[in-house]
Automatic annotation (TrEMBL), chain A:
Source organism: Anaeromicropila populeti
Assigned GO CC terms: plasma membrane
Subcellular localization(s) per the UniProt record: Cell membrane
Protein name (record): Nickel import system permease protein NikB
Signal sequence bounds: none
PROSITE patterns: ABC_TM1
TrEMBL record, chain B:
One cellular component term from this protein's GO annotations in UniProt: plasma membrane
GO MF annotation list: ATP binding; ATP hydrolysis activity
One Pfam match: oligo_HPY
Species this protein is from: Anaeromicropila populeti
Keyword annotations: ATP-binding, Cell membrane, Membrane, Nucleotide-binding, Transport
ATP-binding among keywords: yes
Coiled-coil intervals, chain numbering: none
The protein, known as: Peptide/nickel transport system ATP-binding protein
Domain ABC transporter: 5-251, 272-516
Membrane topology type: Peripheral membrane protein
Family annotation (SUPFAM superfamilies): P-loop containing nucleoside triphosphate hydrolases (SSF52540)
InterPro entries: AAA+_ATPase (IPR003593), ABC_Ni/Peptide_Import (IPR050388), ABC_transporter-like_ATP-bd (IPR003439), ABC_transporter-like_CS (IPR017871), Oligopep_ABC_C (IPR013563), P-loop_NTPase (IPR027417)
GO biological process: peptide transport
Subcellular location(s) of the protein: Cell membrane
TrEMBL record, chain C:
Ranges for domain ABC transmembrane type-1: 72-257
Family that this chain belongs to: Belongs to the binding-protein-dependent transport system permease family.
Location in the cell: Cell membrane
Lineage: Bacteria, Bacillati, Bacillota, Clostridia, Lachnospirales
GO biological process: transmembrane transport
GO CC annotation, single: plasma membrane
Alphabetical list of Pfam families matching this protein: BPD_transp_1
InterPro entries found in the cross-reference section: BP-dependent_transpt_permease, MetI-like, MetI-like_sf
Membrane-topology descriptor: Multi-pass membrane protein
The protein's name: Peptide/nickel transport system permease protein
Coiled coil: none
Stretches that traverse the bilayer: 7-28, 72-96, 103-124, 189-214, 234-257
């Protein structure tokens, strides 16, 4: 197991390097002069001298690869540069914004799991019965509504019509309720269908048939065999879905003014605050890759065949 | 109770279609009944009907099916669940199908026992080990701690048999239990089934297309054809003295070991010389040598057999000849040409001289194209013929030559039977007028009667058109019938080679003798 | 005709009607979608403004109708381009294997290391707003799905006997790729493409909503919702007009995708 994990970690190095290289290249190729952006973001008057000295201090006159190397060296010491907008270290800004996002994603993931797995199992057992069809209809509707519309509809019903919650509840736990519900609706609509499909797929396998022929109890079959085997795929899908979740937070945090990473990056985009965008992308990609590594490890634990 | 199983006038539907008509048979305690027949004869359907599993999609539409004096067709779902597992066991063709692939075997035995009667793991294991012992399964504890994927196919099938015997059922339903196995493994499983009968006094209904297996095991045999019983009685009588024309044809089609073979055409020109051919896969620690230093030659008009079990490297040899794989080492000489070092681009010219037909006949045609389109493609690629009328005339001609009608060329591959498709594949190969035809298990997937016809076709064409044939096959009996010379392969090496009649009548190697003795004959 | 085919026929016709409608809708608008009139701002739905007016007094219905073309066609075009490009790359990569394949797959791995919308937001943010930039941002990762799918199917199929048969019958590599491999793998790829229409529409609308897609005053459903959000409390119809239009359209295309999947992928059908 140890060698498996260390091998996977080693494999991550080129991927993370590629991620940083791509992120850096994207911003390098971005239209506009970073020095000018920085001056504009700070609200300084843009003069030729100011531009030149800023360029010099930002190391923009160095060749591309040197710039990349300098930036990468910074990343290794968790120095993501300083924000153009307010000269704060990017790392601090990201750290501050990370906590609300982690709260948001943690609760959404937890509730999604708690809802989706039992419902998926229930639907698979009651395949094509009314309960199955009904939940399927709901999940279909859930997957067809863009996340911003889910949020706005929730605000409309809960805050404006029923007046159960205030519209602006920034930062408090009350403020978590609607964003979490939005993400749960978004995620579980997809996830319930996938759980159901996977369990049905397992139930079609020959080993289930021959266990039934041997008279193995249905409960043993379902909970110890089908569910165990389905978990492998379910965990993988769940790991991958974290990607959509992380991205979804950008829209939801903006709508609900939740001070997380997503809101930070959208705000930074409007200021053209490139170092923050860079840092955000690198962090998100790294987290995503690590989550996938974690699902791989779960996979390995559950499936003895994986070498 | 007169009989353990008493089936009378049973008809079975698959959806709206009746696939089994008016079948009656009985099985007594400790008796083995074999139901034999070719694909589509309805033999497996009967087993499915007896098991009454929801999800099989079969239902008995007429007749009675008594098991221990109770009609299975009148039982409730609950009663049926109780009977399955305790009184009735089943094993299937796919040896890895019986077990959940990612849980330990011991746990799955315990789960089965525990479902019928509360039992501790320890007690369950003790019970399982005693059954293993009676079935002569060695290393019982190791098996219990293993995952199914860690065992070989044959071992898996034997474990599956033990698993279905755990509740000591009176009746075992076995659906093609040996068909996915090599001959030597097949022999072990057959022995195990015999032991069930002798040790446990279990009755078995065995469904198989392999008449040799039926002859070895069964007390009674039932031959089916298109959903009807054509012959039924004690195996001795049915197999020795068949009453029905179809049964006779079926029995005649089974390849028999022959020690006298057609003699090779005298001193044909040498076509191919293979020296020290090797194939290695992988690198470093994970290298695997699939073929090790194989030498042979092939002359005009001769049929060369290459036999061996799965993984013996027999297919890899021919794949290298025809550059579906690149040889790792050694030389392949065709006349003046050295094929092993030829560039890919230049190799395409060789295909006019050397053609191949495959095991999966239907799969060797693109399912989106009509047979005629596929053959036309080959002709346009490889010959000078461009006029479509001439091409179509050639195809019609070839179709007749292989025993099909020209009209069949205008069908899609899945609209033909396996045997017909294989003939069409032969027609496609012949369109290029090759000197060498490679047949890679070309008849193994076919029913015996279709196999016999395709083999005859190959023999006739070989003689008429002076084509040399390399015949890859796992069935030594079939090889002994048609091949002039034979190469016996094991684990990538050639263990014995020579004139077929000499190898068969006087095998020098232990492995060849083992192969020969594993063949189950009707006699 | 069985139920599956009927469903497919029904939803293809409905999807087609929507597409055609989006093309002719700009000529049928009851009012000028770009004409502002602050005096008529935030009017509730009435006879002359069936969906009401927005804060600048523009007719919401007219804007929804004009925006249909942008919202629907940008998604269709993007799906088609990524489908064609990804499939081509996937087939070539899977069939030839070797170094090209390894490099490509590493590149795809890196692209997939970014959560797709995160990369899209960053790219759109860097490139600046605009429909084309938003499509580029989404397309950057979208093609990889097709490439991976096509590649894995090619890897499975290229070992089949009919491909070997084609080779020993002298077919060139190009012929094998386009005459034999492509027709045999296209089914699941088409299914994937149709299933993606809805989510692509969602992606473009999402970027526009964030102000990273279509720019004001050009009408597009996502950006209309975004614009209307400020006066959501006073004039909810300004949000509901484009919002409901987008939900219904995505639903119809999702139904269409499902029905295509049921027809082309019988295994999936069994599961419902």
């Amino acid at each position: 197991m140890f060698s498996f994990i260390s091998k996977r970690l080693l494999q991550l190095i080129p991927i993370i390097l590629g991620v940083t290289f791509m992120t850096f290249t994207l911003l390098y190729l971005a239209p506009g002069d970073p020095a000018q952006s920085r001056l504009l973001a700070q609200g300084t008057v843009v003069s030729d001298e100011a531009l030149e000295s800023t360029r010099e201090s930002m190391g923009l006159n160095e060749p591309f690869l040197v710039q990349y190397w300098n930036w990468l060296k910074g990343l290794l010491t968790s120095d993501f540069g300083t924000s153009y907008h307010d000269d704060q270290p990017v790392m601090i800004k990201l750290q501050r914004a990370a906590i609300p996002t982690i709260q948001l994603t943690f609760f959404s993931m937890l509730i999604t799991l708690l809802i989706s797995v039992p419902l998926g199992i229930l639907m698979a057992i009651k395949q094509n019965k009314w309960i199955d069809n009904f939940i399927r209809l709901l999940t279909f509707i859930g997957t067809s509504i863009p996340n911003f519309m889910i949020s706005l509809l929730l605000i409309y019903v809960v805050c404006l019509k029923l007046k159960l919650l205030p519209v602006v509840t920034s930062g408090t736990y009350k403020g978590l309720i609607l964003p979490v519900i939005t993400l749960v609706i978004m995620q579980s609509s997809k996830f319930i269908r996938q759980v159901r499909a996977e369990i049905l797929e397992q139930m079609d396998k020959e080993y289930v048939l021959s266990a039934r022929v041997r008279g193995v109890k249905e409960s043993t079959l379902l909970f110890k065999n089908v569910l165990h085997n389905s978990m492998i795929t379910i965990i993988t899908i769940f790991g991958l879905s974290v990607g959509t979740l992380l991205a979804g937070t950008a829209v939801i945090e903006t709508i609900f003014s939740w001070p997380g990473l997503g809101k930070l990056v959208i705000d930074s985009i409007s200021y053209r605050d490139y170092p923050v965008i860079q840092g955000f992308v690198v962090i998100m990609a790294t987290v995503y890759v690590l989550i996938n590594l974690f699902t791989d490890i779960c996979y390995k634990i559950l499936d003895p065949r994986v070498g | 109770m007169e009989h353990l199983v008493d089936v009378k006038n049973l008809s079975i539907n698959y959806g709206p279609k009746t696939v089994v008509h008016d079948v009656s048979f009985t099985v007594d305690e400790g008796e083995i009944l074999a139901i034999v027949g070719e694909s589509g004869s309805g033999k497996s359907t009967i087993l499915k009907a007896i098991m009454q599993m929801p999800g099989f999609g079969v239902c008995a539409s007429k007749g009675t099916m008594y098991f221990e004096d109770r009609d299975l067709l009148k039982m409730t779902k609950r009663e049926m669940i109780n009977i399955r597992g305790t009184k009735m066991g089943a094993i299937f063709q796919n040896p890895s199908a019986a077990l959940n692939p990612i849980r330990k075997i011991g746990i799955q035995f315990w789960e089965t026992l525990n479902s019928h009667k509360r039992i501790s793991k320890k007690a369950a294991y003790a019970q399982v080990l005693s059954i293993f012992e009676r079935l002569n399964l060695k290393n019982g504890t190791r098996i219990l701690n293993a995952y199914p994927y860690q065992l070989s196919g044959g071992m898996n099938q034997r474990v599956a048999i033990a698993l279905s015997m755990i509740m000591a059922p009176k009746l075992l339903l076995a659906d093609e239990p040996t068909s996915a196995l090599d001959v030597t493994t097949q022999a072990q499983v057959v022995d195990e089934l015999l032991r069930l009968k002798n040790e446990f006094h279990t009755s078995i209904i065995l469904v198989t297309h392999n008449i040799g297996v039926a002859a070895k095991l069964a007390d009674k045999t039932m031959i089916m054809y298109q959903g009807k019983v054509v012959d039924y009685g004690p195996s001795q009588e049915v197999l020795k003295n068949p009453q029905n024309a179809y049964s006779r044809m079926l029995l005649d089609s089974i390849p028999q070991i022959k020690t006298e073979n057609p003699s090779a055409p005298s001193h044909g020109k040498k076509l191919l010389e293979v020296k020290e051919l090797c194939k290695t896969y992988g690198k470093g620690k994970h290298t695997f040598q699939a073929v090790k230093y194989v030498n042979f030659q092939l002359s005009e008009g001769e049929i060369l057999g290459i036999v061996g079990e799965s993984g013996s490297g027999k297919s890899t040899i021919v794949k290298q000849l025809i550059r579906l794989e690149k040889p790792s080492h050694g030389s392949i000489q065709m006349g003046e040409l050295e094929l092993s070092t030829l560039k890919e681009r230049e190799f395409s010219k060789i295909y006019a001289n050397m053609q191949m037909i495959f095991q999966n006949a239907v799969g060797s045609f693109d399912s989106h194209m009509k047979i005629r389109t596929s053959i036309t493609e080959a002709i346009r690629n490889m010959t000078q013929l461009r006029n479509s009328n001439e091409i179509n005339a050639l195809i019609d001609d070839l179709m007749v030559k292989v025993g099909l009608t020209p009209e069949m060329a205008d069908r899609f591959p899945h609209e033909l039977s396996g045997g017909q498709c294989q003939r069409a594949a032969v027609a496609r190969a012949l369109a290029l007028k090759p000197k060498i035809l490679i047949c890679d298990e070309a008849t193994s997937a076919l029913d015996v009667s279709a196999q016999a016809q395709v083999v005859k076709l190959l023999q006739r064409l070989g003689k008429e058109m002076n084509i040399a044939i390399i015949f890859i096959c796992h069935d030594l009996a079939l090889v002994s019938e048609i091949c002039h010379r034979v190469i016996v392969m094991k684990n990538g090496s050639c263990v014995e080679a020579g004139i077929t009649s000499e190898v068969i009548s006087n095998p020098k190697e232990h492995y060849t003798r083992n192969l020969l003795s594993s063949i189950l004959t009707v006699e | 005709m069985d139920k599956v085919k009927k469903r497919f026929l029904f939803f293809s016709i409905v999807s087609l009607i929507i597409i055609i409608f989006s093309l002719i809708a700009p000529y049928l608008t009851p009012n000028d979608p770009y004409e502002t009139n602050v005096l008529l701002g935030k009017l509730a739905p009435c006879k002359s403004y069936p969906f009401g007016t927005d804060s600048l007094g523009r007719c919401v219905l007219s804007r929804v109708m004009v925006g249909a073309k942008t919202s629907i066609f940008s998604a269709l075009v993007l799906v088609f381009i990524t489908f064609a490009f990804g499939t081509l790359i996937g087939i070539i990569s899977g069939y030839f294997g070797g170094i090209f394949d390894s490099i490509l797959m590493r590149f795809v791995d890196i692209l997939l290391a970014f959560p797709s919308m995160v990369l899209a937001i960053a790219v759109a943010g860097i490139l600046g707003g605009g429909l084309i930039n938003a499509m580029l941002a989404l397309g950057l990762t979208a093609w990889t799905t097709y490439a991976r799918l096509a590649r894995s199917h090619v890897l499975a199929i290229k070992e089949e006997d009919f491909i070997k048969a084609a080779k020993i019958n002298g077919s060139s590599k190009t012929a094998i790729m386009f005459k034999h491999l492509l027709p045999n793998i296209i089914g699941p790829l088409v299914v994937n493409a149709t299933v993606q229409i809805g989510s692509t529409m969602m992606g473009i609308a999402g970027l526009s909503f964030l102000g990273l897609g279509v720019q004001v005053p050009h009408a597009e459903w996502g950006s209309m919702v975004s614009e209307a959000r400020t006066c959501f409390q006073l004039a909810p119809w300004t949000v509901f007009g484009p919002g409901i239009a987008i939900i219904i359209t995505i639903m119809i295309f999702n139904c269409f995708g499902d029905s295509v999947q049921n027809i082309l992928d019988p295994k999936h059908k069994a599961k419902g």
